[in-house]
Amino acid sequence: MPTSSPHLPLLLLLLLSTAAPIRATLPEKPALPISSNSILIALLESHYTELSELVEKALLLHTLEAALTRHNLTIFAPKNDALELHLDPEFKRFLLEPGNIKSLQTLILHHILPVKLSHGNWPGNPTRSSRQAALSNDHLEFSCSAISDGSCSKYVGEVKVVHFNSVVRPDGIIHGIEKVIIPKSVEREFNNRRNLQSISAVKPEGAPEIDPRSRKLPKRKANEIPMDGAQKLSVYEAMAPAPSLAPAPAPGPGGPHHHFHGEKQVKDFIQTLLLYGGYNEMADILVNLTSLATEMGKLISEGYVLTVLAPNDEAMAKLTTEQLSEPGAPEQIVYYHIVPEYQTEESMYNAVRRFGSVSYDTLSLHHKIVAKEADGSVRFGEGEDSGYLFDPDIYTDGRISVQGIDGVLFPPPAEGKKNEAKGPRIADQNAKTVTRARRGKLVEVACWMVEVLGQDSKFTTCKE
User: Fold this and answer.
1) Which of 158, 187, 232, 309 makes an SS bond possible with 337, Cβ 3.0 to 4.6 Å?
2) Phi, psi (deg, nearest 5) at residue 442
3) pLDDT digits (tens, 9 = 90+) for 68-78
4) CB < 8 Å & 24+ apart, contacts of 83-92
5) What proportions of the chain, in percent to the nearest 5, are helix, strand and coil?
6) Pairing of strands 159-169, 357-361
7) Is 56 left (phi over 0), alpha (psi -120 to 50) or beta?
8) Nearest to 234 by CA among 348, 362, 380, 369
9) Secondary structure element (H or E) that encloses residue 334, with its range
10) What is the distance between the alpha carbons of residues 326 and 328, in angstroms, rounded to a whole number?
11) Helix 101-109 and helix 89-96: axis angle, to 10°?
């Protein structure tokens, strides 16, 4: 009879101890590609086209693909009419703004469950309900309501399910619902944007109280804002260390408590410019090359409203070194593109349609921008120094309006210098400029100025 070797237990222990490191060095099994029979593919090819478009706009395809690798999905799809016609236009505009993509993602994920929920999983008793967590981490309540024929209508929250098992696939199911399910968090964010205390152009004020004994208005305190809401300072005086000759006061009150958070709103619109794409140079001037973002934040906090005509990167690339190298040139360029009143694409287009030509004050004192209707849009300026309203309403929050234009605007030259300035300006505009990959026009100007001063050897960026 064979005898077992005394070294056999030791050998088995050695093999078991080395098995784990060997398995760790093996390549992981790659993730399986999504099946053509997947519920996500079925949604994109279904008649729920409005929901499919929102999923793509919210950049959720990869998120849902990853969710499908872990569990099945139940999608509650609103009818197309519910999203296209019956949704509040202002709320839909809020969802589609680039800065509110997280709210849009939360809204869509609130319609998706990480479990396959069929008709039989609903409570059959009107007195009972159940809850399930959606992909948005909020809970959905499932209930039924008895109707006259003795059956029970199924509900998700307060929304009725109108088409059970609309699309069925091995990894999920789609139920058609009557309207959109709006989570409380998204509703709260939308209401905060509409809150009059943070974004309204005019702060509501109560009627003045009359003293019953003297039948006169009470005396106003020295530091109190007038009841008509007019600012004591014009926008030019508010942004300058000394008073100037600007005649017109800025519209919009600030209130004695400065309840407008100007810095936050300016930060929001600059982030929106970057997310929108094509306006990086304008954002760079406001934040890095000048202190205009801080000045704008102070103006908004004081209750002023602004409209920014933002040239896109293609227009900014046409600026020559000479136009940017003069002292204070970037500030003066931007000042001429800021209108001290709140205008949207609709209000400006309606004005030029009605009056033909409209002039707007700017933060560049004594210089106005002339707007006219051209080719179904709004054109600012005249001749070579003009720009069309190219990207309307990039950012609008009731205090700051940002309109994208396709040209850099310059004030018209004085009468005596018009003829001699026109020739060089046109030549400069038509000159072919070559910019490096992403060094940027602004860095080129800075390096040119440093080179003139003979200090270029101290900056490694200028040696590239």
Assistant:
1) 309
2) -70, -40
3) 889 899 999 99
4) 83/50, 83/51, 83/54, 83/180, 84/50, 86/179, 87/180, 90/194, 91/190
5) 40, 20, 40
6) unpaired
7) alpha
8) 362
9) helix 329-335
10) 6
11) 110
Say how many residues make up the chain.
Answer: 464
Q: DSSP string spanning 350-371? A: HHHHHHSEEEEE-SSTT-EEEE
Beta-sheet strands, E only, within 367-419: 368-374, 377-382, 385-396, 400-405
CA distances from 41 to 34, 105, 180, 271 (A): 9, 19, 21, 33
Decide: helix, strand or coil at residue 193. Answer: helix
What sign results for the dihedral spanned by CA atoms 451, 456, 460, 464?
Answer: positive
Q: Give the helix/strand (H/E) hosting 120.
A: none
Amino acid found at 238: A
- How much is the pLDDT for 176? 94
pLDDT in tens, 383-404: 778 889 988 999 988 888 999 9
pLDDT score, position 457: 59
- The residues pairing with 159 across neighbouring beta strands, listed in sequence order, are 156
Is 70 exceeded by the pLDDT of residue 24? no
Q: Cα 251 to chain center, whole Å?
A: 25
Please name the residue ranges forming H helices in 69-219. Answer: 80-84, 89-96, 101-109, 184-194, 196-199
Burial of 362 (0-12, 13-18, 19+ CB in 10 A): buried
Question: Mind listing the domains of the chain with CATH numbers?
Answer: 39-194 (2.30.180.10), 262-414 (2.30.180.10), 434-464 (no CATH)
Q: Write the CB contacts of 461 (distance below 8 Å, at least 6 apart in sequence).
A: 439, 443, 447
Amino acid at 129: S
Average pLDDT over residues 440-447: 61
Residue 174 has pLDDT above 90, yes or no: yes
Indicate the pTM of the whole model: 0.40
Phi, psi of 399 (to 5 degrees): -115, -40
φ and ψ at 401, to 5 degrees?
-120, 130
CA 276/CA 346 separation, integer angstroms: 20
Side chain identity at residue 292, one-letter code: L
Asked whether the predicted pLDDT for residue 110 surpasses 90, the reply is yes
Three-state secondary structure call for residue 24: helix
